[in-house]
Design a protein that fits this description.
5-stranded mixed sheet, 38% helix, 25% strand, elongated
Length: 279
């Protein structure tokens, strides 16, 4: 892909299997929002998630960051569904990514997704041509493997001219989601439509809190069938409200299979008041 090509820009939850994406960020909190969403989606799809955080971020800090976003990071790591390492991959990694993808499939995972800090390539002795050639060569390899990847570039350390070329070497760029959410509570049903993600979390939590504190009583059904996406933080909020009900109460959450997996990863199975109905 030449430097004049403009890659498509998508929110992180709209990345397809095998996408090779570039993330340019200026704030660590923003980057961890994307990492958390990327991780939650992978875990919900039964994939192995590999986070290459770079030498500046030890795994313990990464676990703390993800846990704060509603990810059961420690549990996922115990099952090898989540792997966090400060290791630097470097160049000439085709054989390594092929082996890692095959290993993930061999251990029962549906695939592999990777988010990696690229600061290692921007230090002293930066070879722009080698970096751009590496990024361009990774695109067909990842597509062939079905390996979904985000290459993270800190815009504070990467010259704008280079970042433009790096972005052009990727077919996809990731941006934070700017979603919308609609909620309706009537007849004992709380229906949510749109997106429940980092852009709509406040609205989601407010809608759920009002529904469960309604004078008519909490909803006995939550309909997520028209919710296009729910992240781990929003799923945890919903589960927490259901768990706060009395032991005799029951709430049925009707949702697509992917949402059900996210809810289970966030502890839905541990709440006796909650019944999942997959559509």
């Amino acid at each position: 892909m030449d430097s004049g090509t403009v890659p498509r820009t998508v929110p992180v939850d709209r990345m397809a299997s095998g996408d090779h994406a570039c993330l340019g960020f200026q704030d660590e909190d923003d980057r961890w929002e994307i990492r958390a969403a990327f991780t939650a989606i992978g875990l919900a799809r039964g994939e192995r998630v590999l986070l290459l955080t770079g030498p500046g971020t030890p795994p313990a800090e990464a676990v703390t960051r993800l846990t704060a976003q509603g990810i059961r990071a420690a549990e996922a790591m115990r099952h090898s569904a989540l792997v966090i390492t400060p290791a630097v991959p470097g160049y000439d990694t085709a054989a390594a990514w092929t082996a890692a993808t095959n290993a993930a499939h061999g251990q029962g995972f549906s695939g592999l997704r990777v988010a990696g800090d690229m600061s290692w390539a921007l230090g002293p002795g930066l070879d722009r041509d080698r970096l751009l050639g590496h990024e361009a060569a990774m695109t067909p390899l990842l597509a062939d493997l079905g390996l979904t990847a985000i290459c993270e570039y800190d815009q504070r350390r990467c010259a704008a001219s280079l970042l433009d070329r790096v972005r052009a070497a990727h077919p996809v760029c990731v941006r934070p989601r700017h979603g919308s959410l609609r909620a309706e509570h009537a007849g004992g049903t709380l229906a949510l439509r749109g997106d429940a993600d980092l852009a709509t979390r406040d609205d989601f939590e407010l809608a759920v809190r009002h529904a469960f504190a309604a004078p008519s009583g909490p909803p006995c059904r939550v309909d997520l069938t028209r919710l296009s996406f729910i992240d781990a933080r929003c799923a945890s909020v919903l589960i927490r409200h259901v768990a706060s009900l009395g032991p005799a109460d029951r709430v049925t959450i009707r949702c697509p299979r992917l949402h059900a997996r996210t809810l289970r990863l966030c502890g839905a199975a541990e709440v006796p008041q909650l019944l999942l109905e997959e559509t």
